[in-house]
Every structure is written in C-alpha cells, then in structure tokens.
Design goal:
single chain; alpha+beta; Helix Hairpins; BirA Bifunctional Protein, domain 2; 2 domains; eight-stranded mixed β-sheet; elongated
Length: 401
Amino acid sequence: MLDFKAITNNLDEWDRGLKRKGAKVDIDKLVQLGGEYAKLLQTVETLRADKNAAAKAKDIEAGKKIGKDLEKQEKELDELAEKLEKLSEEVPNLPLADVPDGGEEDGKVLGQNGKPVEIKNPKDHITLGSALNILDIEGGAKVSGARFYFLKNQAVQLEFALVNFVLEVLGKKGFEFLLGPQLLNEKAMNAGGYLGKAKDEVYKTQDDLYLIGTSEQSMLAYHLDETIEVPKRYASFSTCFRREAGSYGKDVKGIIRTHQFDKVEMFSFVAPENSEKEHEFLVAIEEEILQALEIPYQKVMLAAGDLSMASAKTIDLESWIPSQKRYRETHSCSNCTDWQARRGNVRYKKDGKSEFVHTLNGTAIAIGRLLAVLWENHQQEDGSIRIPKALEPYLGFNEIK
C-alpha cells in the first residue's frame, strides 16, 4: 500500500517525480481516494468496536442494528479498496535525486574499464558459435520459433563454468543461495510490479501461474508478508522467460535478446538507510565479475524515463561487442527502495517498530548475452576462442577450437 500521508504532504515532489519518469497518473484522484479510504476505515473500526461492546453487554437489538450498518460500510470499504489498489498499481517508484532527466538515450556514463580489444575483421558471436559447433540458432527456431537457440558441446560446459565461478564469488561475499520455483502466482508477481505495464512481457500458463522473467521475482516473494532481519542477501540461478513483446527489431539476431535464457541474480533486503551503500556494493560485484572475465565495459546510470516501474535508480554495465563496435548492456542493478516491500508487505523491526525494508536486485551473470560478448572479445585470428584464466579451474580446456 502506498503511503498516502507522505504523498499528500509532498504533492509537488510526487508530481515532479512522476513527470520525470513519464508516468501518467492522476495523483489528485489517488490522494482523494486515499483520504476517503482512511476516513471510512476509521468508521468501520469504530463500528466493530461498538458491535463488540454491544455483544459484551448482551444488547441484541443494538448489536443487530450496528451489524447491519457495519456490513454496509465494510462492503463500501472493500469496493473503495479495490479502486484504490487498481489506481495504486499504476504508480511507479519515484527516481532518486541524482538520477538524470530524459529517456533511453540520456543515460549518464559514469566511467569505463578496460580498453576495447583491437581485432581485424571481428566475427560476430553467431559466426563464431556456428563455426565451432557450439551454437545452433536454426535448431532452436525449428523447435520453438524465433529467439530460441541450442547451446552445444563446449558452450554447455562454459555456461556451467560461468555459473560455478559466479556462485563462488558470491559465496565468499556472504550470499545465501536459493533455487526456487520458476512459476509464480499472481500475488508474487504483482509484488514486484510485473503485472502492470510490464504484463505484456510475461508468459502466463493455463493454470493462472506466471513464468518468471528473472529470479528477482521469486526471491522477493520468498519473504512476502514477513518481518525479517536485515540485511539479507540472496543469489539464485534460474531459467528466465520473456516475451520481449516490445523489442521487435532489437537484437533480433543471435543470443543477446531471447525468449529464454539462464541467469544468476543477486537480491538484497536492507534497512532504508543502507540501500544506497548496498547499491554500490552490488554494482562493485558486477564489475568484479566482468573484470575477471577480461571484458571491457562502461558503467551507465539510466535516466529517469528509462527506469522500470519498480526502480528508483538503476546502474547498467555495458560490455564491449567487437562486431558491433559498441557497448551493450549485460548487467543491470536497481535500487527499488521500499516500493516492492510495500506491495509485498516485507518489513523489519527498527527500535521495536515495524518498518518497510528496501529491496535491490542485480545481475550476477546473464548467460546468453555474456557468452556473446565473451566469445567476441576472446576470439583469436584462427577462429578459436580463448578462455579467460578465471574460468580455467572450472573447465578441462583453455580454448574452444
């Protein structure tokens, strides 16, 4: 539930924030309904107390009269709550103050690491993978359609080497590991904000369950309606499913943007005063992983209009792709402040008082796009692919040829 008192007391701030994010929300209507709900809730609670008092006094007639009025008021409260919830679901998280204005093209480059490799006539990952018999896109299209693929032979081993490498990194940093459901119910998906404007990206089954697009969704839902100790840090491996309904024409070829891919995701529950520091911590881990894999990248803060519904601030790491001579996003890390926690009712105790936690999520490794940049950056003149030294302990080979 939104904090209607905070919204009412900071209408100008909310109006600016929603405009920065490009959200079309009738904030005045929301505040009005919030006020009506609070007033009616107080009436209902008073009637409930009066009914209990009449029962204790064994005043049957008074109890019946109050009960009839209470039933009417509770029905009105439920109807108002439904309207309020529907409108509230359209309200995104507000961008933090240091997030730049603008849209997709207005992200702020915060720095770069590693010099893009100089390769004469670089081959793209599709050409490399096909020639080395480690990637079959046509096979994936034959059995499932566009944006599906088969990994083969050493690429399969490389995927699990990447996963094991990343899990070892995260284990040393104190993350707990989860391997959870990849089908979630509506309440779980809605808590993260994935059934609002993003619902067209989600696969739904005939059993009214939803395939996850990231294990962020299941890790958040793991503590729905709970009061927990913070900080809690989880890492989860999962297969992810995305319809990519709004991305036609983008990264159509290859395995950078697909309907199904594997990923290891990081997720943190922290006290509000620690969420900015936690964001820096998660981004630093992402950078450590890319540096260990010897992949050049740049760090970008997304502009307000490019943020997801849940995010108040997002940092992307964009890896260098030699065949495209440009950086493309391979890692993303978002601070969602208390937005998801309010929807999922996840709290912690502070000085004996129950407060909402802050949640953060970050990509540790997204297999498809990471394999693409790894193959391209480590391709050799003879068409082989060099394995980064960080992965050698997890494999029985140091090159694919």
